[in-house]
Amino acid sequence: MKPNLYPLQFEPILKERIWGGEKLKTVLNKPITSKITGESWELSTVEGDVSTVANGELKGKSLMDLINETPDEILGTRVYERFGKQFPLLFKYLDAREDLSIQVHPNDKLAKERHNSFGKTEMWYVMQADADSRIIVGFKENSSKEEYLKHLHDNTLVSILDDVKAKAGDVFFLETGTVHAIGAGLVVAEIQQTSDITYRLYDFDRVDAQGNKRELHVDLALDAINYNKVDTQKKYDSKANTSNTVVDCPYFTTNFIPLEDKVQVSKSGETFTVYMCIEGSFEIEYDGFKHTYIKGDTVLVPAAINAFVLSGKASILEIYIS
């Protein structure tokens, strides 16, 4: 018997990181207990970190179980046809108390060959930024493997990487191969392909509580890096009560909705939709179901839910697969 579906929230999967802090609690209301919590995985089917429903009659059920039972209804007909019973995206919030490592992600081809995984195209929406916060993203000028290795060896890699100031509302889209690091003082919403493959290039010589440096992946990264200068920052409109396109790529589409009243949403059943509440609060009304979401909440609307209403005063990210 198929379950009655409704908008689904999931238990956050909290991750301690050497660079993490406490803003996931103070800014985003997450139930953290550690002073170095760096990530809240909101929606995941990564092996070992599969999300569990937090609300309603399906509470306690894993996302993978739901997909296996009703793939068309959860994923959507087109998504199921393209990806099978795989949930192709991973949704996170990150708190960078310190700089993250300088890293790169492989493309689909390399990730498949080496790790039997998707690649990791991703985007960041900056939710909160301390004064003078910045990100490292790509090279200042077109570079080469030889120049990169020389600066890595000389401990001067940062000098050839682009350094961009970041403020709340900024969006950065990172295709695979882009060398990057989220800088200290930023809270970001991250939307990415389902992958946990990261090649760490440089970690600012940090050590953990036991005095150990984290592993680097210099050799693996060589063929994964795009050595050309890239333009990663995305400009977008902010028309009220409208889905303003921010990123539209083969892996996901992300829209920005400045919600000021009510919006009637109609869907085709071809793809699931995810909403991330960036600011304020909003409600979803659907067939007698009504629930309020606040800043830091993430909700999956199954593809089988074709018509619903968003209401409230909020800034929302809307994500689906085109």
UniProtKB/TrEMBL annotation:
Q: Name the GO terms of the biological process aspect.
A: carbohydrate metabolic process; GDP-mannose biosynthetic process
According to the entry, every stretch annotated as the Mannose-6-phosphate isomerase cupin domain falls at 244-320
Query: Record's InterPro entries?
Result: Carb_Metab_Reg_Kinase/Isom, Man6P_isomerase_Firm_short, Mannose-6-P_Isomerase, MPI_cupin_dom, PMI_typeI_cat, RmlC-like_jellyroll, RmlC_Cupin_sf
Q: Which residues form the active site?
A: 200
Positions contributing to Zn(2+) binding: 105, 122, 180
Which cofactors does it use? Zn(2+)
Please give the Gene Ontology molecular function terms for this protein: mannose-6-phosphate isomerase activity; zinc ion binding
Keywords linked to the UniProt accession: Isomerase, Metal-binding, Zinc
Boundaries of every Phosphomannose isomerase type I catalytic domain copy: 10-116
Cofactor info, note text = Binds 1 zinc ion per subunit.
- Which PANTHER family has this protein been placed in? FRUCTOKINASE, TRANSCRIPTIONAL REPRESSOR MPRA
Name of protein: Phosphohexomutase
Q: What is the lineage of its organism?
A: Bacteria, Pseudomonadati, Bacteroidota, Flavobacteriia, Flavobacteriales
